């Protein structure tokens, strides 16, 4: 998950660091992908784009569900979709 967020951050012009990851990792522990109000939303506000990443752990598993919103360009949409596909397959 950290690698995904670091790469996505590059595309929006945001410097995703250790403090960002600590925040996300702590919040992710209390999420549940089966309940919409138990997802965690993290903004990536960069020099080029501003997006929201929503994350939630699957109940009884190690998988994390991810959605990305606020994508305003076709190029960023393609990059975000490619990252989502690549990490889902990994």
Commentary on this structure:
The structure is a single chain. By secondary structure, this protein is an alpha+beta fold. 42% of the residues lie in helices and 22% in strands. A three-stranded antiparallel beta sheet has the order 1-2-3, covered by helices on one side. The longest helix is centred in the C-terminal third of the chain and has 16 residues. The radius of gyration is 13 Å and the shape is globular.
List the helices and strands and how they pair.
Elements (H helix, E strand, L loop, with lengths): L1 H11 L5 H11 L11 E6 L4 E8 L6 E6 L4 H16 L1
Antiparallel strand pairs: 1-2, 2-3
Helix pairs in contact: 1-3
Average pLDDT taken over every residue: 95
Count of helix runs? 3
What is the general shape?
globular
Category from helices, strands and their pairing: alpha+beta
Percent helix range: 40-55%
* Strand fraction: 15-25%
Spatial order of strands in the largest sheet = 1-2-3
Question: What's the total number of strands?
Answer: 3
Distance between the termini: 11 Å
Main pleated-sheet profile: 3 strands, antiparallel
Cα-based radius of gyration, to the nearest Å: 13 Å
Supply database-style keywords.
single chain, 90 residues, alpha+beta, 3 helices
Quick structural overview:
With 90 residues, the protein is of the alpha+beta class. It has helices spanning 2-12, 18-28, 74-89; strands spanning 40-45, 50-57, 64-69. The longest helix has 16 residues, at 74-89.
């Amino acid at each position: 998950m950290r690698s995904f967020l670091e790469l996505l951050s590059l595309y929006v012009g945001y410097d995703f660091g250790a403090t960002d990851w600590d925040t996300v990792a702590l919040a992710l522990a209390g999420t549940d992908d089966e309940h919409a109000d138990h997802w965690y939303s993290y903004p990536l506000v960069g020099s080029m784009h501003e997006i929201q990443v929503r994350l939630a752990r699957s109940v009884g598993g190690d998988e994390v569900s991810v959605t990305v919103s606020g994508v305003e360009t076709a190029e960023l949409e393609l990059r975000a979709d490619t990252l989502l596909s690549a990490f889902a397959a990994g």
